[in-house]
Automatic annotation (TrEMBL):
<dbReference type="GO" id="GO:0030598">
    <property type="term" value="F:rRNA N-glycosylase activity"/>
</dbReference>
<dbReference type="InterPro" id="IPR001584">
    <property type="entry name" value="Integrase_cat-core"/>
</dbReference>
<dbReference type="InterPro" id="IPR047930">
    <property type="entry name" value="Transpos_IS6"/>
</dbReference>
<dbReference type="GO" id="GO:0003677">
    <property type="term" value="F:DNA binding"/>
</dbReference>
<dbReference type="GO" id="GO:0017148">
    <property type="term" value="P:negative regulation of translation"/>
</dbReference>
<keyword id="KW-0238">DNA-binding</keyword>
<feature type="domain" description="Integrase catalytic">
    <location>
        <begin position="65"/>
        <end position="226"/>
    </location>
</feature>
<dbReference type="InterPro" id="IPR052183">
    <property type="entry name" value="IS_Transposase"/>
</dbReference>
<keyword id="KW-0815">Transposition</keyword>
<dbReference type="GO" id="GO:0032196">
    <property type="term" value="P:transposition"/>
</dbReference>
<dbReference type="Pfam" id="PF13610">
    <property type="entry name" value="DDE_Tnp_IS240"/>
</dbReference>
<keyword id="KW-0233">DNA recombination</keyword>
<comment type="function">
    <text>Involved in the transposition of the insertion sequence.</text>
</comment>
<dbReference type="InterPro" id="IPR036397">
    <property type="entry name" value="RNaseH_sf"/>
</dbReference>
<dbReference type="GO" id="GO:0006310">
    <property type="term" value="P:DNA recombination"/>
</dbReference>
<dbReference type="GO" id="GO:0015074">
    <property type="term" value="P:DNA integration"/>
</dbReference>
<dbReference type="InterPro" id="IPR036041">
    <property type="entry name" value="Ribosome-inact_prot_sf"/>
</dbReference>
């Protein structure tokens, strides 16, 4: 997947530097505007906002297909995010070692949303041996729906579902990095902007976990993933 920077009024490296810095560190757009000005780049916070909204999600989507293989024992949970004053749901899955498998923002927390999320995670990560969830009825129904789909495709062994909350402590702890960064963002103005920014935050967290190329610093990995 090639990400186009055609039409941008700044060089690609400047855009990527600003986007990565915002996603990785606890700065506001106005703080970042000052930081970029100190480096001789004159732009406003609205431009930075547009860059994150436009590019963060695209780079994260490209990176989904380039991370290292994960363990087949998964942990899945969702956490809450506020967009325009309303709560929406960030579905997340990691393996038993804490490596991020997938994530998606949803306006609903129901069977349809869970089914879609599990199908999305399976597409990139392959079949897990088991998925650990809490006692959510929606997530239970989502796994059952995917097992039914897999059976129709000839898969003889269903995904084992384990409903034990204490086994999901690892993903609840993993939520904290994402939530800590979100708290400094002063809220999201639209679902699309929230989805892109959150995908970017998840990506830099995956880079921090060492899920991509070794031997490069985090920013160099980010540039490489952007193509």
């Amino acid at each position: 997947m090639t990400i186009s920077f055609k039409g941008a009024h700044f060089p690609k490296d400047v855009i990527l530097h600003a986007v990565f810095f915002y996603l990785r560190y606890g700065v506001s757009y106005r703080d970042l505007e000052e930081i970029m000005a100190e480096r001789g780049v004159d732009l406003d916070h609205a431009t930075l906002n547009r860059w994150v909204s436009r590019y963060a999600g695209l780079i994260a989507e490209a990176a989904r297909y380039r991370k290292r293989p994960a363990d087949r024992s998964w942990r899945m949970d969702e956490t809450y995010v506020k967009v325009k004053g309303e709560w929406v749901y960030l579905y997340r899955a990691i393996d038993k070692h804490g490596k991020t498998l997938d994530f998606t923002l949803s306006e609903r927390r129901n069977k349809a949303a869970a089914t879609k999320f599990f199908a999305r995670a399976l597409e990139v990560n392959g079949l897990p041996r088991k998925i650990v969830i809490d006692k959510s009825g929606a997530n239970t129904a989502g796994i059952k729906a995917n097992n039914k789909m897999l059976k129709s495709f000839g898969c003889p062994i269903p995904i084992e579902m384990v409903r034990r909350k204490y086994l999901n402590n690892i993903i609840e702890q993993d939520h904290r990095f994402i939530k800590r960064r979100i708290r400094l963002m002063l809220g999201f103005k639209s679902f699309a902007a929230a989805s892109s920014a959150l995908a970017g935050i998840e990506l830099v967290n995956m880079i921090r976990k060492g899920q991509f190329t070794t031997g490069l610093c985090p920013f160099q990995q980010f540039i490489q993933l952007a193509g």
